[in-house]
Design goal:
With 297 residues, the protein is of the alpha+beta class. 22% of the residues lie in helices and 37% in strands.
Length: 297
């Protein structure tokens, strides 16, 4: 097997290069062993790297494995949106197809494609989420890490593949002004097996109804630019609480604090409860990757 493979790098949740969340995608991932995938994900040093593979079930259009620099994830939002975009660009699926099925470790996820070319919007259905209470001592530690009083913020644990602590800070101004203790967050997430801590609050004016930030310092990502799984988890939390401040079809803004400007379209189906996250992508790099002979399984 040739060691050369097609490769793309793109920005997800923005139609502008360098404004979304970058994603590395190895298109011809078949034949790579897990150790090589992990090593390449560490080498790219991006929040996630995706590997496209032939599906193993007849209903799926493609399969994806997703790695941070430190671990494999069963699901992540921006790699799912970006992988669908790349699968179309690379010709793995018909460019005219508007309904796809992504196979990943979290299961088979429906994907819808709206428009085409530079206007293409990809929406991915997130895995069903479970919302859990957080113990008093953990709430105290999280509040201390984000410099708020424990009773001044609502904190929950949301599991939709990755586990996230989700903190409702009410107002976007508080979210944007936040200067968290990243060392404390890293220690807490490592101790409790949580990938990161996110905060959100209500925007007033503009196209976005919500401001979001997500911190994953234990995964070598102090602040993630734009995070699909977090935004899906926030919608699940809102639905669980019956919180209608934002409605069930809105746009969230994320990334300005790290020099990006991402927009995530979040929607919950009233009948089924299914949550989708989506947005546009900007293809930045298209080329060929050579991982050497050791890359072959």
């Amino acid at each position: 097997m040739s060691s050369k493979r097609r490769f793309m790098q793109l920005d997800v949740f923005s139609h502008l290069p360098m404004k979304g969340n970058p994603l590395a995608v190895v298109i011809d991932g078949d034949g790579l062993d897990e150790a090589t995938m992990r090593a390449f994900a560490r080498w790219t040093n991006l929040s996630e790297t995706a590997f496209l593979l032939p599906p193993t079930v007849p209903d799926a259009d493609y399969r994806v494995r997703i790695f941070t620099p430190r671990r494999e994830l069963p699901f992540a939002g921006h790699p799912s949106v970006g992988s669908a975009y790349v699968a179309i660009e690379a010709g793995l699926v018909d460019s005219g197809k508007t309904s796809l099925i992504q196979q990943c470790a979290a299961g088979l996820l429906p994907v819808t494609v709206e428009c085409s070319g530079t206007e293409r919007v990809i929406r991915v259905q997130a895995p069903a989420a479970r919302v859990h209470d957080v113990s008093a001592d953990v709430r105290q530690a999280i509040a201390q890490a984000i410099h708020v009083a424990p009773g001044d913020v609502s904190i929950s644990l949301v599991d939709n593949g990755p586990h996230w602590w989700v903190c409702d800070m009410a107002e976007a101004s508080r979210v944007r002004a936040l200067k968290p203790d990243l060392s404390a967050i890293a220690a807490l997430t490592e101790q409790h097996g949580v990938i990161g801590l996110s905060v959100f609050g209500q925007e007033h004016g503009g196209i976005a109804k919500m401001a979001v930030r997500a911190f994953c310092p234990a995964d070598d990502m102090p602040e993630d630019p734009v995070t699909g799984s977090v935004n899906a988890g926030i919608m699940a939390l809102l639905a669980e609480r019956g919180d209608r401040r934002f409605g069930f079809d809105y746009v969230a803004s994320q990334g300005r604090e790290v020099g990006r400007d991402g927009y995530v379209h979040v929607k919950r189906d009233a009948a089924s409860g299914a949550i989708t996250i989506g947005g546009r992508c900007a293809l930045v790099i298209r080329g060929e990757l050579d991982l050497g002979e050791t890359a072959s399984a």
